[in-house]
Amino acid sequence: MNPFLTISIATRNRPEYLEKLITSIANSKKNTSERIEIDVIVDGLDQAATVAYLEKVNLDNLRFFTIPWQGVAGARNFGSKVARGEFIRFQDDDDTLDSSAIIEIIQFHKRHPDSFLLGHAILRDTKNKFMNWATGANGFLYSYTFMKSIPLSHWGRFWGGRISLPKRYLNDCKFDTTFDFMGEDTEWAFRFAQNNKLDIHHGKKVISVVERSLTIDEAVLRTVTQGWSNYKISEMHKQSHLEEVLRSNCATFADKQKNQILDEIALLLKHPFCRDVNFLEISQNLDLCKYEVESFLHGIWWRVIELCKSLGYLAAQDGLSRMELEELVRSSIELFPNEIVKN
């Protein structure tokens, strides 16, 4: 008998987070009698630590597959192909699931067998000021506040790392493997919605905890890729509302040259406030109120993010691959200055 639900996890070189996630799924599964399976797609043949951990996991419903590196779109296509569940939940490997998440997913799909369910993410590190900004006031990672203004049928609600859907929708509509890091979910949802009903619900009780906090340096690499992906998607879907939205999303500094943008990002990252955040201490030292310092810092972060999106868009426009773009950024900007380099 096939399982009702497959939880499909694409992972690459994060065994410490994967272990937390699988433990949380096992605990959440205890609250339902429905059969579920956990499929882990190990994306890349160079992940000995991840494979060693998975070989030790004592769960009858866990399977793992090691594939040559394909990126997120390819790994999710593989995951949907091997999944045996009637419904599939794509799950980011650096989140954990709340104890009631799985029963909530199952009950929803029993009531709504043709619909999608977007889970609700909360931060583990609730005091991390950059992550609070990135998921709230700015929302470049995600924002449930902004989502309230987006219709249920909108492709902007399809977030690939915490969504469940009927597996049959993936039989003929695959993720585009152009997108090996991000953008695959937006492009898939837009394409699917051209001929199908995209009915996405927000499951406020389907809680996943974001275990990993991004730094501003990691956000730089992520956001240039977002800009790159936006250009690729807009080229695929010319003369559409999607093209208009994605172009405008990256247009803030599109009139600049790539070298100008790189120089300005590098300069902003060197600002003492940008990486070392303690609003109260800073404001006391400068005799400023906390709100003034916070607003100033948010302004720096906003400019960095908008510059990165424009840079990625322009680089894709000039024909750079995503890997070439990342190499350009790493060679032009000192990222992770406090990172310990191991010989």
Automatic annotation (TrEMBL):
InterPro entries reported in the protein's UniProt record: Glyco_trans_2-like, Glycosyltransf_2, Nucleotide-diphossugar_trans
Protein name per its UniProtKB record: Unannotated protein
Organism: freshwater metagenome
Annotated Pfam families: Glycos_transf_2
Family annotation (SUPFAM superfamilies): Nucleotide-diphospho-sugar transferases
Glycosyltransferase 2-like domain location: 7-139
PANTHER family reported for this sequence: GLYCOSYLTRANSFERASE, GLYCOSYLTRANSFERASE 2-LIKE DOMAIN-CONTAINING PROTEIN
